[in-house]
Design a protein that fits this description.
There is one protein chain. The chain is an alpha/beta fold and 120 residues long. The chain has a single domain, classed as Rossmann fold (3-Layer(aba) Sandwich), CATH 3.40.50. It contains three helices and five strands; from the N terminus they run βαβαβαββ. It has a five-stranded mixed β-sheet, sandwiched between helices. It is globular. The two termini are 13 Å apart.
Length: 120
């Protein structure tokens, strides 16, 4: 069994370009995603959480700043678990998603997409 306690539990949130449900800061959708992911982490006793947030970013492209930082942290061994609300938060390019899944696998990172029932 892989030990995750000393590593980051990455909570990834993304909202598409042009969503205007903002109250001056983060969009309401991002606020809701963060709360949803935090609740899941708390219920499953996952510690050392860190949010990676791409607000107002298209799922078509993978040059998103928080996504790039998260992958970098995975490759440097800092992250043990990546959690997303669902696969639509990740992106629409299935080849890129597959590449990231391979990066997670190579680095022994557990991946969870809550609403899709995915837990590697």
């Amino acid at each position: 069994m892989i030990e995750y306690t000393n590593k980051i539990t990455a909570l990834y949130s993304r909202l598409s370009v042009g969503d205007d449900d903002r109250d001056g800061g983060e969009s309401n959708s991002i606020v809701n995603q963060k709360a949803f992911l935090e609740r899941y982490a708390r219920q499953h006793k996952l510690m050392n959480i860190r949010h990676y947030i791409d607000d107002d970013e298209s799922g078509r492209f993978f040059d998103r700043s928080a996504y790039i930082q998260m992958i970098s942290d995975v490759e440097s061994g800092k992250i043990g678990i990546v959690i997303m609300k669902d696969m639509t938060r990740w992106g629409r390019d299935y080849l890129q998603v597959g590449n990231a899944m391979e990066i997670f696998r190579r680095n022994n990172v557990r991946f969870i997409a809550i609403n899709n029932g995915i837990d590697s």
